[in-house]
Automatic annotation (TrEMBL):
Keywords annotated in UniProt: Disulfide bond
Domain Ig-like positions: 157-248, 263-359
Name used for this protein in its record: Ig-like domain-containing protein
Organism annotation: Mytilus coruscus
One Pfam family matching this protein: C2-set_2
Domain of life: Eukaryota
């Protein structure tokens, strides 16, 4: 005989006859908690019932959905039937994992199945049934359906992400990264992050990749999912020394569950060749101190000392030397050139070159002199009388000065003489003077003055005139 859970005054037996006087029973099933974690032992399945006056319960059962049908897992008895609760054939998988407790009353009570250990197969739909009798016969009622769901916490990825190729990575290569591990239940996913770093290991750029798919397979015995995710990156120069991280994203679990690669080595050809000079001035003077040229570059592998070669632009067939620096010790005009630095690195059986140049301008020395030459002359002005005249001529190269003299010719009479003296270095000029010795007569005097820079000379001349006796 079957009765529904809704109260009614009649029930229908197997023959279709109505049975008066039996009211339906209130039957409930409850799982506490409804969401459990694998291994948790606090799950309790309780089948409760309440009868009306004149009815009493004779037995109860808890059922689970197996292969699409509800099957009895355990049978319980009331005090009217002094038997122990037992697992059915379909419930044998619960052996040693559950404790069964019979109801203690006939009219109001509960059949309890207490779990001591949760397994994956316990995630299911459950219901319970109660057999009861009244003045008009026996019947049964069932509860609604309840579900037990599982929450399986994720774990740190199995290992650091693998990547292919794993060595000999060059700029421009596509590298495939793979991450695997427990992403929990319900299924979580993996999130990728690339951290570009400088040579000191400091992060200079962080790039997350949120749209990568995570495929998952439920792991037997764990109720959780094992996920796999892949990320493909095209390697660039900035990816040298980068790390790629795989982290688990799961509900409110913090992002501490991650694994990341070791720093990735990405080879790239030499570039950014720079040449500097010291002292850093536009023009050097002949005879100045040494000029140091320095060459720097970027590249991986880095350019070694022997990877730098120096040339003059006028003769690139003959190297001046190797190393990151070149010193011009002979600072002379004929060393004015464009100096070229060629930087070179090699990887995977190939060699790469890049160069740059710098112009070094060396000019003649320009010197301003401030030296003097002293010339002393004795000039007779009146007969038998003479005086000495001293003059200073400045011999600044390529300049001239005006010299003014007063020459007495006849007694107490004088004339003014002006001359221009050119003092071009290491050359000479002729100077012609007319000196009156006896009154109203004259003679010519020619002198050559050498004006070698930075030297001076003293010249003293005495002119003896004819003597004139008084009458």
């Amino acid at each position: 005989m079957i009765c529904s859970r809704i109260s009614q005054q009649t029930c229908v037996n197997e023959t279709g006859l109505q049975l008066d006087g039996i009211e339906t029973i209130n039957v409930q099933i409850q799982a506490t908690p409804s969401e459990v974690i694998l291994g948790q032992n606090s799950l309790q399945m309780r089948c409760s019932y309440t009868t009306v006056t004149g009815e009493f319960v004779t037995g109860a059962n808890i059922q689970a959905k197996i292969n699409g049908q509800f099957k009895t897992l355990a049978t319980f008895y009331t005090p009217s039937v002094p038997l122990n609760a037992t697992l059915s054939t379909d419930g044998k998988y619960l052996t040693n994992r559950v404790t069964l407790t019979n109801p203690t009353t006939l009219s109001t009570g509960s059949a309890i199945m207490q779990f001591s250990q949760i397994a994956c197969e316990d995630m299911n739909e459950y219901m319970c049934g109660v057999s009861y009798a009244g003045s008009s016969g026996s019947t049964a009622a069932t509860s609604g359906v309840t579900n037990i769901s599982f929450k399986g916490n994720p774990e740190k990825p199995d290992s650091e992400p693998s990547y292919v190729p794993s060595a000999g990575i060059e700029e421009g290569n596509n590298v495939v990264f793979t991450c695997t591990g427990n992403v929990g239940k319900p299924q979580g996913k993996f999130r990728w992050v690339r951290y570009r770093r400088n040579s000191n290991g400091d992060t200079i750029q962080e790039t997350p990749y949120e749209s990568q798919n995570t495929t998952a397979v439920e792991m037997p015995g764990t109720c959780t999912f094992n996920g796999t995710s892949k990320l493909t990156l095209k390697m660039e120069q900035l990816d040298n020394n980068a790390v790629v991280r795989c982290q688990v994203i799961y509900q409110d679990v913090p992002h501490e569950l991650y694994q990341q690669t070791n720093p990735i080595n990405v080879d790239y050809s030499v570039r950014n060749v720079r040449v500097t000079k010291s002292p850093n001035i536009s023009t050097f003077t002949e005879g100045a101190g040494p000029i140091t040229l320095t060459c720097t570059s970027d590249g991986n592998p880095v350019v070694t000392n022997t990877g730098y070669t120096w040339y003059k632009e006028s003769n690139t067939n003959v190297p001046l030397g190797t190393g990151p620096t070149y010193v011009i010790n002979s600072v002379v005009v004929n060393e004015t050139y464009n100096y070229i630095c060629v930087a070179q690195n090699s990887f995977n059986g190939r060699t790469f070159n890049m160069n740059n140049s710098i112009h070094i301008q060396i000019d003649f020395t320009t010197t301003t002199y401030s030296t003097t030459m002293t010339k002393r002359e004795v000039v007779f002005t009146t007969p038998k009388t003479s005086n000495t005249k001293t003059e200073t001529v400045f011999t600044t190269p390529n300049t001239s000065s005006l010299k003014t003299e007063t020459v007495f010719t006849t007694p107490n009479t004088s004339i003014t003489k002006t001359e221009t003296v050119f003092t071009t270095p290491n050359t000479s000029s002729s100077k012609t003077e007319t000196v009156f010795t006896t009154p109203n007569t004259s003679s010519s005097k020619t002198e050559t003055v050498f004006t070698t820079p930075n030297t001076s000379s003293s010249k003293t001349e005495t002119f003896l005139p004819y003597q004139i006796h008084p009458v």
